[in-house]
Structures are given as C-alpha cells and as structure tokens.
Amino acid sequence: MPTSRTTALERLNALLETTAETHDGYLDLLGAAPQAGPPTGLTQRLMRTTLLPQVYERYWRPALGRALKGPLGPSMAGEVRLATKLLRLRPGDTVLDVACGTGRFTRAFGAAVAPDGLAAGLDGARSMLAKAVAEGGPDTVAYVRADAVRLPLKTSTVDGLCCFAALHMFAEPETALDSFARVLKPGGRIVLLTSARRGWQPARLIESAGGIVSGQKMFDRGEIAAALRARGFTEITEKYAGVTQIVAGRLD
C-alpha cells in the first residue's frame, strides 16, 4: 500500500521500465520528440494542436462521438460510466488510461480506485496532458507522456486498462494490443472503444473511404474480440453503435 507521503507521480514512476523526469506536472519519456511513432493522418495531427485540448471534452469529443455512434450510442458521460463498470475497478487498483487526452476518463477512474489506488493517464500530446494536469482531479491520478503502442510500464503491473477512441489511430494496433496484454496482471481487465466497419457492402465502402481520408483504420465487427481471444482474454463482451465498438475482456 502507498504511504501518505508517496505521490501518485512517484507511484507511477515506480511502475515504468525507465525512470522519467517530471515536466509541467506530468512524467515525460518522449523529450523533444513531437510524438511517438509515425503520424497516421489528420485526426492524429489535430490532437497535437493547442486549440483542440481546450474544446476536446466539452465539444469535440462528444460531437464526434455522437456522429460516429449514432443516436442510440452512449454519451461521453455514458462511456465513462460503462468503462468504469466493465473494468470492475475497486479501491486500491491500478488502472491505465491509454491515449487519455485531457483526462476525463482518468479522473473518473481515480475516484473509483481511491483512496489507495492509482489511475495513470498516458498520452503522447503535450497539449492534451497540459490540459489534463490543469483540470486537476483526485490525488490518485498521475500522467505520463509516452508511446501508447509500446507501453513503458513493467510487465503485469496494472489491474485494468482502458483505451477509448484511439486504437484505430495507431500505426501498429496489433503491437499495441500485445503491449496492453503484457502490462495487465493475470485476471486484469481491458476495455476498448474503436472503429467498427459494417458488413453491408455499400456502407463498408463509404466507411473505409472515410477512414482513409482521416487516417483511421476501420476494423471489422468481431475483429477486436478475435484479437483479444488470441492474446488470452476471456469473458469478452461486444457492444456496437454506428461505426464504433466497445469490447471488453479479462486476461486469464
């Protein structure tokens, strides 16, 4: 158990494979690099701008999510509640929020694992993390700027892992899934929200073209669930809305 003198940043630093320096309130493993890995398209480049983080939680992410999920999909607040429920977070757990953006999910996870747990938000964009730090939150929350594809955490160190609205923007999503499985403890849980291309051919063609333009990979329905099974996950659930899927599972 952490002591009252141990900060969330210190606890997060202890989980990293390489010790990181604190920069503007978060740990930084990328230094002068503008991002980790090659750019994949317009959407990813927008994440590095200074304007988007200011409107991300209140306007951009809810509006984009609604367009992709359709009228029956969950709101952003609904996504946060669903992710927390599917991860089955308990006080004292360690949870990793991959591609955390401005920290909306991370803060909620921090409340769920309080008072002795750790909610770590990981992102590659300085502007997103600066906004996340400025938003504050529970003292169980800490952030790190690092590669979301090749996670810098030690093996089997987290009880839960969330990656919402990001896997389809990674240049190497299969490598990312390998890394997600590596850092989870046996029995740990994962929840992902990503793209889901429909099977009807006309819609499939349009959705594939949209993915090409925006630089996002369009996964097939069932593809992520199959990828998790191949990595030893069980108790897999799938929920579809529009061109999105929320997939969750438990690592055996």
From TrEMBL:
Lineage: superkingdom: Bacteria
Coiled coil: none
Keywords: Methyltransferase, Transferase
Pfam family, one: Methyltransf_11
Stored InterPro entries: Methyltransf_11, SAM-dependent_MTases_sf
Entry annotated with the keyword Methyltransferase: yes
Location of the Methyltransferase type domain: 96-192
GO MF annotation, one: methyltransferase activity
Gene Ontology BP, a term: methylation
Record carries keyword Transferase: yes
PANTHER family attached to this UniProt entry: METHYLTRANSFERASE, OS06G0646000 PROTEIN
Listed name of the protein: Methyltransferase domain-containing protein
